[in-house]
Amino acid sequence: MRAPIGDFDTAVPAPDCLDDLIAPVADAVRGWTGAVPADRIVYVETDPRWADTAVFVEHYGQDLLERSANCVVVAGRRGAETTLAACLVLSTTKVDVNGVVRRQLGARKASFAAMDIATGATGMEYGGITPVGLPRDWPLLVDSAVVDLPCVLVGSGRRRGKLLIPGKAFAELPGAVVLDGLGV
Known about the structure:
Helices cover 20% and strands 25% of the residues. It is α+β, with helices and mostly antiparallel strands. The chain has helices spanning 23-30, 53-60, 97-105, 115-122, 144-147, and strands spanning 11-13, 42-44, 69-78, 81-90, 109-112, 140-143, 152-155, 162-165, 176-179. It holds the Pfam family tRNA_edit. One of its GO terms (molecular function) is aminoacyl-tRNA deacylase activity.
């Protein structure tokens, strides 16, 4: 199979390579529902040595820069209560944590979650966190620009490998809220 974007040596429909995915991501693919069929989620093998964005696009294709999204874990606090959430924005933007995220979570303060909290709560590797397979009770804030893309490159839950997913599929993930201006 050829990947819909980028220049990858290995591209496989995610349902056909569940053993290559970490447990939360494999479980999400296995139980996939929605308008986009699970076999439209493509797993591509990547080398973690080329994880830096500039080197990554140089190696796998310049077209990926505008078609990549980052998934980050944030913590919103109000009093003693902390709410963990994930945010998905284009790689060319940054998450508006102190504006859009704080307001959406109803928090007094919002910040990026510490690495050990993000990895412990998701079961994913830092630098590979993906919106596919997140805890079902988490809010997933998705920038509308991500949903508008025909195909988006995101993490696979680990540093080796990525997922290629039609943008509209992110709006159907558990807890998803599509927002304008999440990425600035």
